[in-house]
Amino acid sequence: MTSATSLFSPIEADLCLLVENLKQLVGAKHPILYAAAEHLFGARGKRLRPAIVLLISRATMPEQDITSKHRRLAEITEMIHTASLVHDDVVDESELRRGVPTVHSSFGNRVAVLAGDFLFAQSSWYLANLDNLTVVKLLSEVIMDLAEGEIQQGLNRFDTDLSIEAYLEKSYYKTASLIANSSKSAGLLSGVSAEMADNLYHYGRDLGLAFQIVDDILDFTGSIDSLGKPAGSDLKSGNLTAPVLYALEEKPYLEVLIEREFAQQGDLEQAIALVKDGHGIERSRELAAKHAQSAAQFISVLPPSESRQVLIELTDYVLSRLH
Prior knowledge:
Blueprint: H1 4-7, H2 12-27, H3 31-40, H4 48-59, H5 68-92, E1 96-97, E2 100-101, H6 103-107, H7 109-128, H8 133-155, H9 164-190, H10 194-221, H11 224-227, H12 233-236, H13 242-248, H14 252-259, H15 267-277, H16 280-299, H17 306-320
Antiparallel strand pairs: 1-2
């Protein structure tokens, strides 16, 4: 399996610069925010979202270097993503993320909520300073989508009537919207045509959905070491994902376990076993592959370049995380 680090080697210098800039942008105002920034923007993490922005920037500017606005867009994208993670961890009461203590478990809920708010506010300020109204609208919509996705997830806890369509809509809000709209924005900053900008949006949308579906499969098939959290965490909290929704169609008793919210001893373990025993994981793999293949088609319309090739390979990388 190709690692994200080796895949992103053509933009390694860009990503190093991004991390240093983020620490300075976020941490300059206050020591506790600097400590949180060091914690958030340290060495861990794949930097998938800003990497996509940088790759699309380079792929759509093949004859010249990317601009400071492209770089700032990548930083804004990572700020928005990180702010959403900080708030998600508070809402979900998660002690660990990628095996590392979360901001709220290290600094307390108050600092975590304020750090998330500060990141959203700061990303909005830097966004306005790009002086591109279309890009401002696209990324502002993402911030609304993230909140909408979190609300939908909260309202639909333990809801066994949830449809795959509703699950994909929530997944778009929570994961794919940021990748889709930042991909389109990178192209717009390069001056691409409206048609090309739409292709970039659909690339990000399908890649984001594939990524989220794979994450949801790994919640059942991954190890604690690789997940950084116990397997079945989403199911335990009542977040019903593609493998569960498909499994519900063939395992009626699963509905009983979910609707009583795993109140009895052994309920959760039995539910996880039922999901693994059916075709839910296999059907979820097929759904992820469909979206990954669609993403590859949308990005292949770009002129050939090393960056375009990485963007195509990224669609395979997303699926390879399952092996």
